[in-house]
Design brief:
Shape: globular
Strand content: 25-35%
Oligomer: single chain
Radius of gyration: 14 Å
CATH class: Alpha Beta
Length: 122
């Protein structure tokens, strides 16, 4: 997908602060879009840890199920960690302004974004 199309799709998510593509093993940021002043490095590292713990928990609870995502709610923000369906070594980390975001629409748009991008190239 061309960067302009990517930008247009992500701008449809009202209240989006940052959306990043992150390596699940080491928390390294492969790509990101959004506010350059947000500390995405810290969020990426902690997101990788959170995803690892949640995957361990899911394996212990029910080995036939899988993790679709993790939602962290804060007073002013939503943080959504979404493992990719197409590449399990990567995840999307979205930070949304809680006062401006329609959470259901944002999750839907993030899923559509993930399904329309070829993440095998990373």
């Amino acid at each position: 997908m061309e960067i302009n199309l990517l930008s247009k799709q992500l701008k449809r998510i009202k209240g989006l602060i940052v959306l990043a593509l992150i390596d699940a093993y080491d928390g390294s940021i492969l790509e990101y879009f959004g506010d350059e002043f947000f500390n995405i490095d810290l969020a990426a590292a902690e997101g990788a840890n959170l995803l690892s713990y949640q995957r361990q928990l899911m394996a212990e609870l029910d080995s036939n199920d899988y993790l679709e995502g993790v939602l962290v709610t804060m007073r002013d923000q939503y943080h959504i960690v979404t493992p990719l369906e197409t590449n399990h070594t990567l995840f999307l980390y979205a930070v949304l302004d809680r006062t401006d975001t329609n959470l259901a629409f944002a999750r839907y748009e993030i899923q559509q974004f993930e399904r329309n991008i070829n993440f095998y190239t990373y």
